[in-house]
Structure formats: C-alpha cells, structure tokens
C-alpha cells in the first residue's frame, strides 16, 4: 500500500488525471419491465421499470415524474435482501444528480428524501458490510477488466453511499477505520488507471474519506481543513491542501 505521499506527488497525479476522459457510458436502448424474481440465494431481485435512455423515460416532463417512476413497491421493498438492495441503490438512476448541488452532502440528502430504497437500506444494520463487500467486488472487477472506464460512475456512486455510513450510530471507530481502508484501496486502484479516472472520480473518494475521517475523530478536519464543512472538498471541488492532508492522514490511520 502506498505511503508517504507528499503534496507535490499529489499535484503530479492530478495534472495527469484531470485531462482524462471521464464518462463513456451509453444509454439503455430498451425499456426494461419491472420484475421480481427468485435468485439462487433465495432472495428477491428487482429492477427499475423505467430507465434513462428509454422512450418512456424521455416522455417525463419533470424530475418528480422520474422520482416517482423509480420507487420500489412497498410489497417488494421489505422482502429484498440487503445484498440486493445495495445493488439496486447503487444503480438508482438519479443518484448521480448529487453533482447538481454546490454541497454534495445536501445533494445526497435530496436523493435519500426522494428514493425509498436508500432510506430502507440505511435502516439495516448490515448495510455497511454489504456496501463494503460490493465496493471490494467492483474494485476486483476493475483490476481484471479490459474496460475499467465502465466503473467510473459505479465507483463514484458507491463512494457516495460509503460516505453516508457516517450517519449510522451503531458503527464503531474500528468499523470506520475499515471503511477508510477500503476507500484508500479504491483511491490506489483508480491511480492505476489514469487514462480512465479523472478529477470527478477522485473527488468522490476524497469527499467520502473526509466524512469517515471526521467520524473517526471530529478534530481531524475542524483543526486542519480550512473552513471546515464549507471547504471545497465537501462540494466536489479540489482543495490541494485539504486533499494532501486527507491522503497523509488516511495512511497514518490505516498503517499498522
């Protein structure tokens, strides 16, 4: 695992990464019907009945119509396994609209308010374990994939959800250190693919780590990051001093 990363090294990384192409996703061409099916694990699986790129989605005249189309039926929601629900929330079509807000945490507040799947997921005690397992699995696929650019939005969305684990009061300090360790691994995995991951992808990682570090010790950010929660790092913009501090602090905490 990388250690002793200094400010100038981080600057060099960012110069390299800022110019990289970020989003190469193609829209879904066919309208997928709502379905509930038994999986081999015995759990229930559900998919969004209408997705971006479909003709039905194009007919929506407001964001509210999109929000309503994405709700999980109540009779399905409570029967979904946490594993399935985590994957469903990761693929929530409107999750990435958090970038439309100046403060990303507020943007996430909106997504939680609008989507019943996210609210249900974070009521479950096993949510943190399932999200970490999902993050680890996606990172392994990234390292093995010939097309890692497919994981840009997937990993960004996962890091957003991991940032929200700071709202769960039943997690211990050791739990948050483990979350931080996974985020550092994600950061290093992205650096292995500079041709794919750009500034936005790194921003979600630092955004998530900032909240997890604050949960480990509230003084970390208040005393060392200028303007606290008004710092650019919480709004998805780079702050070189804050990013460098987060890098160094992360390694100091997770190192044996």
Summarize this structure briefly:
With 256 residues, the chain is an all-alpha fold. The protein contains 13 helices and two strands, in the order αββαααααααααααα.
Structure description:
The protein has 256 residues and is mostly helical. The protein has one domain (7-254). Helix content is 55%, strand content 2%. It is built from 13 helices and two strands; from the N terminus they run H-E-E-H-H-H-H-H-H-H-H-H-H-H-H. The chain has helices at 7-18, 55-58, 63-69, 74-77, 82-90, 104-114, 116-121, 127-144, 152-163, 173-191, 199-216, 219-224, 240-254, and strands spanning 36-38, 44-46. Strands 1-2 form a two-stranded antiparallel sheet. Strand 1 and strand 2 (44-46) form a beta hairpin. Helix 5 (82-90) packs across helix 8 (127-144) and helix 8 runs antiparallel to helix 9 (152-163). The longest helix has 19 residues, at 173-191. It is globular and about 50 Å long. Mean pLDDT is 79; it is low at 2-44.
Which H/E pattern describes the elements? HEEHHHHHHHHHHHH
Distance between the termini: 11 Å
Poorly predicted spans? 2-44
* Mean pLDDT reading: 79
Kindly report the spatial arrangement of strands forming the biggest sheet: 1-2
Q: How is the main sheet built?
A: 2 strands, antiparallel
Q: Based on helices, strands and strand pairing, what is the structural class?
A: mainly alpha
- The rough form would be described as globular
Q: How big is the Rg? A: 18 Å
What fraction strand?
under 5%
Number of domains: 1
Percent helix: 55-70%
> Total number of β-strand segments?
2
Helix count from the secondary structure assignment: 13
């Amino acid at each position: 695992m990388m250690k002793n990363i200094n400010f100038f090294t981080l600057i060099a990384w960012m110069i390299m990464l800022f110019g990289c192409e970020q989003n190469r996703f193609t829209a879904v061409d066919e309208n997928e019907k709502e379905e509930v099916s038994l999986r081999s694990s015995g759990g229930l699986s559900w998919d969004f009945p209408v997705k971006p790129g479909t003709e039905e989605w194009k007919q929506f005249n407001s964001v509210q119509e999109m929000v309503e189309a994405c709700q999980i039926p109540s009779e399905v929601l409570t029967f979904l396994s946490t594993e399935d629900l985590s994957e469903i929330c990761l693929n929530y079509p409107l999750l990435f609209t958090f970038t439309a807000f100046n403060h990303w945490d507020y943007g996430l507040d909106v997504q939680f308010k609008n989507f019943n799947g996210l609210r249900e997921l974070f009521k479950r005690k096993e949510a943190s374990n399932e999200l970490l397992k999902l993050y680890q699995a996606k990172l392994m696929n990234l390292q093995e994939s010939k097309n890692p650019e497919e994981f840009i939005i997937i990993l960004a969305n996962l890091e957003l959800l991991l940032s929200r684990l700071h709202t769960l009061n039943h997690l211990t300090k050791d739990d948050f250190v483990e979350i931080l360790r996974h985020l550092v691994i994600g950061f290093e995995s992205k650096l292995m693919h500079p041709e794919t991951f750009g500034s936005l992808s790194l921003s979600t990682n630092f955004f998530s780590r900032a909240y997890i570090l604050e949960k480990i010790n509230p003084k970390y950010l208040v005393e060392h990051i200028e303007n606290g929660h008004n710092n650019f790092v919480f709004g998805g913009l780079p702050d070189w001093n804050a990013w460098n501090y987060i890098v160094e602090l992360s390694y100091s905490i997770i190192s044996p």
